[in-house]
Known about the structure:
With 206 residues, this protein is an alpha/beta fold. It contains six helices and 14 strands. The strands form three sheets. An eight-stranded mixed sheet has the order 2-1-3-4-14-13-12-9. A four-stranded mixed sheet has the order 6-5-7-11, covered by helices on one side. A two-stranded antiparallel ribbon has the order 8-10. β13 and β14 form a beta hairpin. The longest helix is centred in the last third of the chain and has 13 residues. The protein is globular, with a radius of gyration of 16 Å.
Amino acid sequence: xxxxxxxxxxxxxxxxxxxxxxxxxxxxxxxxxxxxxxxxxxxxxxxxxxxxxxxxxxxxxxxxxxxxxxxxxxxxxxxxxxxxxxxxxxxxxxxxxxxxxxxxxxxxxxxxxxxxxxxxxxxxxxxxxxxxxxxxxxxxxxxxxxxxxxxxxxxxxxxxxxxxxxxxxxxxxxxxxxxxxxxxxxxxxxxxxxxxxxxxxxxxxx
Length: 206
């Protein structure tokens, strides 16, 4: 029986682009805002585009946080955060000055760019990933592969062992993490063609 992939719907955009990407891979995910569906999930993909504070408020209002914590921290099912979904896994964010889910020892800060003529915020477009360690998530994805980004805030990881990849945008920032069953990427694999499809395929196979 294929793994049951859940995409929690907490009203923060881009989940349907992830859903469409999975459908093109002949994977049919469950998209739901029902906490009971989290209990049934074999894997969770947590996407999101928008404001950190609003996202945390939505997760709370949909009563999803307790079930997510149970599945990820207790049952240890694999989870992949994408863009805002990755940021929500951290302890806190400057965007709204609010605590996150606290699954990884990291915080979220706004880009601090000096050369504003060369480096615009938000960071939009294709950029390379410098891989920091081996991982099943990036199996058969070459170092310095390019992925599509769209964000104004980025992770600062307090545990270097959690860093899976970094990207340079005037300075290096954490663009991928992996801590046991918890994985996340700042870029959008669902918009990154071959490399992005491979990453999603790798996650499904974990």
